[in-house]
Design a protein that fits this description.
Number of strands: 41
Radius of gyration: 31 Å
Strand order of the largest sheet: 14-17-20-23-26-29-32-35-38
CATH architecture of the largest domain: Alpha-Beta Complex
CATH class of the largest domain: Alpha Beta
Largest sheet: 9 strands, parallel
Bound molecules: uridine-diphosphate-N-acetylglucosamine, calcium ion
Structural class: alpha/beta
Strand content: 25-35%
């Protein structure tokens, strides 16, 4: 492949999104929309990528990541005007491949096909088109009787007859660089909004006697996201693709349409995922079962774990551990292998050793727990005095009775027992029993005596 420079147009405000955030930063299947065409361009082998941004779009620059050049379009005067901003970077010939930032379903294969067609056929320009069931909003492709592409007419400028054309412009172009630069100079603003249309280069090239070709693909891949309805459609299609790949790799999805796995998550073979599960940038081991309604974000879940109706954030869970139902693992939590984190248990910034059980209704905050500990129902690690946070340590083999308060910082020695209902304020030595509650007093026949008074 000869030298190929990519231009990604992303300066538009995306007015139709009705958002304070630039359109291309809205997420589709877990990554900012712009990430999808960028990935396709990288995979297609673009030598250089220029992103045209609007003024003050620092967040967009951050999202685009390494190895990208930026051109700024200070005034939004249309797609042609946006492409002009990239002109100073278009040096050294070859071809330019132009994509919009709002086309998340475009694949590297299709981008490559457009580039290869241009090269193989000696075209000045090859564009990508698709036949849409409802082409409203897209530029329509006007062909002559022989099928040659003559020009693109925008929705706002189309006649009633032209609006009936279902073949529309997808917004992927491969153009010879010197010809593109000449065309951009010839663009003039078009009504109704006085914008420079990039689409006009097709007519300009034809008038100059240059060869223009088209690659036709399916409309699904060419969905342009202008509003939130299209964002939802594109996201659903991306998720379907992602789910399909996981199923091919041996993951069972009980109801793929109602499972929300983002682009960054990895899942081991023979894992089963029930509906309503949300996976964000997470790694799930082999043979795990994720039951309904769990959200797992930036976390690692080991092989053979089960997670049910739980929220797991920035945490690690060892193999064979069960989580939930209704557990909440907050950032900084590391749970070992073969543990049980049961119902209504919250764990924050804590380490829990292998085989330890926190079966129900407990709060474990800022604590280091050894192995094979039993934490009784209703135990609270009292880690906060209203000003500062403190850590506590529970050594392996300890048994914490139900409804215990551990006032941090406190250390419970190996194999120590805490009587139920204790409020522990001092360290407990290994192998001892600590009881920290008032003794029970029984006054016999108390009721009868009172009634006599
Ligand atoms: C555009 C095409 C239309 C095509 C459709 C495909 C034009 C005139 N129309 O229409 O033929 O069918 O895409 O989805 O090209 N942008 C800028 N600066 C601007 C304006 C836009 O950088 O001043 C960027 C946007 O960020 C976006 C892309 O260009 O990524 C397309 O702009 P948009 O306004 O969405 O164009 P459409 O109306 O969808
Ligand atoms: Ca668009």
């Amino acid at each position: 492949m000869e030298k190929c420079t990519a231009v990604l147009l992303a300066a538009g405000e995306g007015t139709r999104m009705k958002s304070t955030k630039p359109k291309v930063l809205h997420e589709a299947a877990g990554i900012p929309m712009i990430g999808w065409p960028l990935a396709a361009l990288r995979e297609a082998g673009a030598d250089k990528i220029i992103v045209v941004t609007g003024p003050g779009m620092q967040a967009l620059r951050d999202a685009a990541g390494e190895g990208v050049l930026f051109a700024e379009q200070t005034e939004r005067r249309g797609t042609g005007h946006a492409a002009m901003q990239a002109a100073p970077f278009l040096t050294g010939g070859g071809c330019a491949v132009i994509l919009p930032g709002d086309m998340p379903l475009i694949t590297a294969d299709t981008v490559k096909k457009v580039i290869d067609t241009a090269e193989a056929g000696g075209y000045a320009c090859v564009l990508l088109t698709a036949s849409y069931d409802n082409p409203t909003g897209y530029g329509r492709i006007i062909r002559d009787a022989q099928g040659n592409v003559l020009r693109i007419v925008e929705e706002a400028n189309a006649t009633a007859e032209e609006k009936k054309i279902r073949e529309a412009n997808a917004f992927v172009y491969c153009v010879r660089v010197p010809l593109l630069l000449e065309c951009l100079k010839k663009l003039s603003p078009k009504p109704p909004k006085n914008e420079y249309y990039l689409t006009d280069i097709v007519e300009i090239l034809n008038e100059a006697g240059e060869k223009v070709g088209a690659v036709v693909t399916d409309a699904e891949e060419c969905l342009g996201v202008n509003d939130r309805v299209q964002l939802a459609q594109a996201s659903a299609l991306l998720r379907r693709r992602i789910a399909g790949k996981h199923m091919e790799n041996g993951v069972t999805l009980i109801d793929p349409q109602n499972t929300y796995i983002d682009a960054k998550s990895k899942i081991g073979q023979d894992t089963v995922i029930y509906p309503g599960v949300i996976l964000e940038d997470s790694r799930i081991g082999e043979g795990a079962v994720l039951y309904q309604g769990s959200r797992i974000s930036k976390s690692v879940i080991g092989a053979g774990c089960t997670v049910q109706n739980s929220v797991v954030l920035e945490s690690e869970v060892g193999a064979g551990t069960t989580v939930g139902p209704y557990a909440y693992l907050r950032p900084g939590t590391q749970v070992g292998e073969g543990c049980r984190i049961g119902d209504f248990v919250e764990v924050k910034n804590s380490r829990i050793g292998a085989g330890t059980k926190v079966p129900h209704l407990s709060y474990v905050g800022d604590a280091d727990l050894g192995e094979k500990i039993n934490i009784g129902c209703g135990t609270v690690f009292v880690n906060y005095d209203g000003k500062r946070k403190f850590r506590s340590v529970v050594k392996s083999g300890a048994f914490i009775g139900c409804n215990t308060n551990l006032i941090s910082p406190v250390e419970i020695g190996e194999g120590a027992y805490i009587a139920a209902g204790s409020t522990i304020t001092k360290d407990v030595p290994p192998h001892s029993l600590a009881i920290a509650r008032s003794r029970q007093i029984v006054r016999t026949d108390w009721k009868d005596k009172r009634d006599e008074e």
